[in-house]
Every structure is written in C-alpha cells, then in structure tokens.
Amino acid sequence: MAENIDTAETQNERVGRHERFRGDYPIVVEGLVNRFGDQTIHDGLDLKVRRGEILGVVGGSGTGKSVLMRSIIGLQMPTEGSIEVFGRSITDADPDEALGIRDRWGVLFQGGALFSTLTVGENVEVPLKQFYPNLSPELMHDIARYKVLLSGLPEEAVNKYPSELSGGMKKRAGLARALSLDPELLFLDEPTAGLDPIGAAAFDQLTLQLKKALGLTVFLITHDLDSLHEICDRVAVLADKKVIAVDTVPNLMELDHEWIQEYFNGPRGRAALTAQALDELRQHMDQPIAAQTIKALDNPRPKKDKT
Ligand SMILES: Nc1ncnc2c1ncn2[C@@H]1O[C@H](COP(=O)(O)OP(=O)(O)OP(=O)(O)O)[C@@H](O)[C@H]1O
C-alpha cells in the first residue's frame, strides 16, 4: 500500500520536472566531436544558446548542422564532448533521466516527418500518447485541435492526411506536433525550405509570434537569408568543423571570413538585407524619411578600417 501514497517528495519531483528552465543557457555544447568512420564532422565544437532567443544555425551543405541538432536532442551519441540541456547532461544521462528532459522540447524535422497513415490530429497526439498515456482521448483531441489552430491551420486540417496537404500546410502540421507538449525549446530544421516566398515569410512570422507568445527558445537551422535577417536574434556559423562565430547578422557581416562574406555579403545576402530594411522603413512610412537613408540601402556598407 505504501508505494501508492503520493508523498510530498514524489509531488515535489513532479513539480520540479515541469518547472520551466530559468538559467541563461538552456543548451550548452562543449568540445563536441562527431566522427563517422574516418570522416570528422565536428571537432571541438562549442555553442551556448541563450534562453528566449531565436538562434539561427547556418553553414555550408554537409557542415553538420543536422548532426549537431541530433546530438543535442540525444538522437546521435557524440564521439566526444559534453552537451547540457536545461542544465542536465544529455551525453551522460541514463535513459530515464533523458526522458525527463525530452518532453520539454519539440522538433520539426526536415520535410515534416509526419506519419503518412495518421491524420494531422493523430500525428499531434503521438507525443501526447507517449508522454501522457493517461490523458483521456477527449482531452488529447482537444489539445491536438488547439495545437493545429495555433500553427495557423484551419480546423478541418485536423482530420486530413499528410498527402492531402500542401507543402506549407505539412510544415505547419509538423509544427503543431512539435508544440504538442508545450515545449520550452523548439528545434526547426530548415522549416522554410521548399516554400514559396510568401509561405516562407508567413512561417517566419508564425515562428516569431510563437516565440514571443510562448516564451520559446528556438534552434533554427536554415539556409534562408530572409529568415536570418527577419527573425533571428543571433546566428551561429558552422565552418571548419566548429562554430566559428555566434552574433547578430550585422556583426557577422563585419567579420573577415571568406564563407561569411560570401554568404551574407553576396548578391542574395544583400538582397535579403535590402528587403528587410525596406520592410522596416515601410512600417515607419508616416514619419519623414531622409532620401539619403533609402539611397544608402542600395549601397554596400563601408567596411570598418581594421588597422
Ligand atoms: N548517421 C550517419 N552516418 C554517417 N555519416 C553521416 C551520418 N549522419 C550524417 N552523416 C554525414 O555527416 C555530414 C553532415 O551531415 P548533416 O546532415 O549534419 O549536414 P548539414 O550541415 O545539415 O547539411 P545540409 O545543409 O545539406 O542539410 C554529411 O557528410 C553526412 O553524410
């Protein structure tokens, strides 16, 4: 009988597990090494993600952005190094301890990774069934419906199968599933890839709104320069098997590194910057704007004198 008594201790453990993380860095990666055979992907990679930020993660194809994300969420055991999420070690955790953290993040994988034989609502219910099997079916349906609406899908999408959705809707359905457990951390792997510019911009704005409304910390892998300019607080650049810089986009643009210069100051980078600046100007159109300011947008920023 004694084992059925809900002691203060067990209650405290439960409360503790659901308390939100209050530290500065929900993700801390130190000295990460990932090797596949004789291929070294990461070699001494360090990264700290700040609570409440949208951190963009960029790097050339194959630099290990997805492997980094998989390492952080415990799907890829690193060769060396330590990873802490919410102050708890992912690399040393026993399976039970890891489970205590896993229900506090949501992941939108590349392509959505929805179960094709389940409806959108059933997809959203998958994590609920895994982590809260005692919830009533009615409550699960209600939560799924709410998450679908929160992700900007119409209510009728709940009963649709992934094959009946457009690319943008599939991403939103994947997002609804990532939000099913009210996560503190959201991992998005190239969420705007394959979307048209309007769909991509709408998804960016949704991400920003959700971050603000739900107090999320967002780890956003992207190649989308517009997303970096529009919604990222900081951007981490992967190159040379490490994170070579983490900063705001304007600060990164000042760095003297070949890949960073090509990426942010190349034609596409400049176009994204101009678009964002014009967007901001449009929001202040009722105030007088110096013609000079607009002219400056079309001219590259003068480089800082490094001497
Ligand atoms: N399980 C694995 N076994 C062997 N090699 C792997 C494994 N997972 C990833 N790799 C390799 O690690 C490298 C980095 O892959 P990753 O998917 O993280 O790159 P990425 O930076 O996300 O690239 P992209 O921008 O093209 O999506 C690639 O060369 C990939 O082939």
TrEMBL record:
Keywords for this entry?
ATP-binding, Nucleotide-binding, Transport
Stored InterPro entries: AAA+_ATPase (IPR003593), ABC_transporter-like_ATP-bd (IPR003439), ABC_transporter-like_CS (IPR017871), P-loop_NTPase (IPR027417)
Q: Which residues form a coiled coil?
A: none
The protein here is known as: ATP-binding cassette domain-containing protein
What molecular functions are annotated in GO for this chain? ATP binding; ATP hydrolysis activity
Q: Where is the ABC transporter domain?
A: 27-265
Origin species: Qipengyuania pelagi
